Amino acid sequence: MFYSACRTVRLKPGITPTSCSCHTGRHVVLRLDEQGEAPSDQVNKRHKKEKVPCQPVLDHFDQQYGQELPDLWASTRSVLLNPHSWQYGVMLNRFTSATDVIQILQSKGFSRFLPQTDASALLCDAHSLASKSKCPAVNGLVLSPRSISKCLPDNFHPPSLGTSHAVSQDLESDTLPSLPCHSLQCYIHPYTMRFPTPAHRPGQLKQYYLLNAASLLPVLALQVRDGEKVLDLCSAPGGKALAIMQCATPALLCCNEPDPHRQEWLTKTLESFLPHSLNSRVIVSAQDGRCFGMSEAAKYDKVLVDAPCSNDRSWLHSGSSQRGDHRLKERVRLPVLQAQLLRSALSAVRPGGVVVYSTCTLSSSENYAVVETVLNDFPEAEPDDLWEEIAIPLSKYFAFGPAHPSRGQASHKPSLQSQNRTVSSYHHRLGILVVPQPGKTWGPMFLSRIRRRPQ
Ligand SMILES: C[S@@+](CC[C@H](N)C(=O)[O-])C[C@H]1O[C@@H](n2cnc3c(N)ncnc32)[C@H](O)[C@@H]1O
Q: CATH 3.40.50.150: does it fit domain 54-87+214-452?
């Protein structure tokens, strides 16, 4: 059992955990024929079960996202409304041998996303070059493209970095060395090829986990290293916790989830993927995430806040109009809860530590506005620019939205300008947004990384 230090804190009446059925962990079971198409009998079964889009939610999104993402919403809408176009990534479990799975994946045309041979190999080269050259000592695994280019030979010419804030162009992303070396292995397919859910094998760990590949970006941004203390504040069903454990072996990973049913789901996930030898390092707790910052102040090196949000994909298929209406009413309260969770996370992280805030909605008020509000109250917190570090290197796989929607720009003042930042870099620093587009259907996923300044 991955249980210890489990404290249940009752949520205040009226503020129940949002039943956010995050798109991580949603397993779609389809057998694949040789062409990668679902057999027609299965396609027919799927059609029978298919839900019609929820009209009140669709109308609401049309109005909001039509304004916030004017150039993108029409194509995003078509992706979100068509579950057959959704893609799933296959994250391998490093605690099992997955040679057989890799062979099947490769034979079906899947390839490794974040292959070791491009960015990370170049990064490792840069490390060895740095150690032999005049370059200052390299701390940690991540170097910015700029610092690497200083260490590379004079005749090395990196591709120029695009500065456009619009949807990604196919930049020469494979050669941009800004992502860390890591053991995370995720396979993706260029088309909407789906892989079956991993079978339960008695006494054996599961070999892979299916997820929206954009869910890995907040974990990459967290940059967890061996021996660190990590808090996953809103953890169920556990997809990102598993991804963290693929990247490194923390001294402690506390997976927090206050909703009892979802906590059960989380515990089962951890038990199915992680070996018993990690039981003392991976614990499940049941606190209201808003209280963590007080009860465990400055205890963690890294905190992930994968916040409850209006999950655009699942909300569009809410079923009845009544349910859709109810969710839209709940929606207005989410930014307050999200800001409370983010504040709590910033209190739980040690000075010098890092918090990543993420959601799976396109909504500006749950994304940029939450980050901005919290930054205004936390002078000791500083946002990082993830555009260069994550959006540009991965633009081959993901489409990214504009740095900050125009509506948000008008309504939220860049208070950090006083700290010598331009408006443009300020808006990049608030976070990056993965916007589903035809051919790059991953997302929605917003992520922002905030550093607590060392004292
Ligand atoms: C987006 S989901 C998390 C998905 C998870 N990180 C993953 O990758 O599988 C958000 C979770 O936050 C939980 N939650 C809701 N209110 C919370 C609160 N006050 N404190 C902590 N977690 C909360 C929800 O029950 C839900 O399981």
A: yes
